[in-house]
Specification:
alpha/beta; D-Maltodextrin-Binding Protein, domain 2; 13 strands; disordered N terminus
Length: 361
């Protein structure tokens, strides 16, 4: 059955005491009400008569995905599930967790879609366990979560503007980002962005989470330029405003493919390769719809779309490497200890905030 959804309804406010004016408005309101009722009845008759079906279901997702990926994925969802409305509310990973926790007594969303696995692991009690229909097709190396599922394989890379830095000047390791000639590293805040938190964890995983490791990270922070939004991180480098950006691989690759004067550098001292996550929120208003969405997101069709159109690495064993990107075997990848990251997340964020305040970031 078709339905009419009226949002942000507005009311007419009558000013003055002219009875004739009031009477006119009352008659007008009756006419408008009658027209709306007739329109609703007509839509119902149309549905039963074989007209185009209206959406009868809704899935709400909180996501840290880039806008461009959300747009492409929503269009694909509408092709596959035209009767289920997908409402995506985009925010940073930290904001996603804060909102889900604040709403835990009365959840307002069904799915968390594409945020850092360490954030999901630390807050796994907010999530509903679920085994997807094609779990056997997911690579074992990515099956690391508690109550959350791997969605895509991600890593952070250096995006370098080749007009601003020569080949010999390009950073090759994480400490190279602190070099004076680099003079600017575009990134996001590690206390708000899941990918930026992973960058910080990457440095600490290599150089230690003691004072020595934090000294390395602090020296890098001295060159930081905190971009006004996650979408601006790479764009600032592509446009020649900041020489280097530290960003997710797929985001960097889109600027390379777009023909900008930029190049991807994989840190030679090691880069974390790990899954970002997708999960059903505990107490989701539309659990069945959430399960449909998760199964869809992990399907071969969607994973291949993410590979071919968005440059994301898949978590399925039957999908290929994104065009233009090297296989993992050619990159010095390091394992991400999600338990270590989750256990230390609050402490790491607090330390980041102290350093950011000290450095006036």
């Amino acid at each position: 059955m078709a339905c009419v959804l009226i949002k942000n309804s507005q009311h007419v406010t009558m000013l003055g005491h002219n009875d004739n004016l009031k009477e006119g408005f009352m008659k007008l309101n009756k006419i408008i009400t009658l027209v709306l009722v007739m329109a609703m009845l007509f839509s119902v008759v149309t549905a039963f008569a074989g007209g185009r079906p209206e959406r009868t279901d809704r899935v709400v997702a909180y996501s840290a995905h880039e806008d461009s990926i959300i747009a492409g994925m929503v269009a694909l969802w509408e092709q596959d599930h035209p009767n289920i409305q997908l409402e995506v509310i985009r925010m940073g990973s930290g904001d996603v967790i804060n909102r889900v926790r604040a709403e835990s007594a009365n959840p307002q969303a069904d799915v968390i879609w594409s945020i850092g696995g360490e954030a999901l692991e630390q807050n796994s009690e907010l999530l509903e366990p679920f085994t997807p229909a094609e779990w056997n097709m997911i690579a074992d190396v990515y099956k690391v979560g508690t109550n959350w599922l791997p969605y895509t394989g991600i890593m952070n890379v250096f995006l370098v503007n080749t007009d601003m830095l020569s080949d010999s000047q390009m950073p090759r390791t994480w400490p190279d980002l602190a070099a004076p000639h680099v003079a600017g590293v575009s990134t996001a805040r590690a206390d708000q962005s899941g990918s930026a938190f992973m960058q910080m964890a990457n440095v600490l995983a290599i150089y230690g989470d003691d004072d020595a490791g934090w000294d390395v990270y602090r020296s890098i922070m001295e060159n930081f330029f905190i971009a006004p939004s996650s979408g601006a991180v790479s764009r600032l480098t592509n446009d020649g405003e900041i020489p280097v950006a530290v960003t997710l691989e797929d985001n960097a690759q889109r600027f390379v493919a777009g023909g900008g004067p930029v190049r991807i550098v994989y840190p030679e001292d090691g880069v974390i390769a790990a899954p970002d996550g997708i999960a059903i929120i505990a107490g989701a208003p539309n659990k069945a719809g959430a399960e449909t969405f998760v199964n869809w997101a992990l399907s071969a069709r969607v994973q291949n779309f993410l590979v071919q159109e968005m440059g994301r690495r898949p978590v399925r064993t039957d999908a290929s490497t994104p065009p233009g990107l090297p296989p993992l075997s050619e990159i010095n990848t390091i394992e991400y200890d999600f338990a270590w990251s989750a256990a230390n997340r609050a402490q790491f964020i607090e330390r980041f905030r102290e350093l950011a305040m000290e450095l006036d970031l």
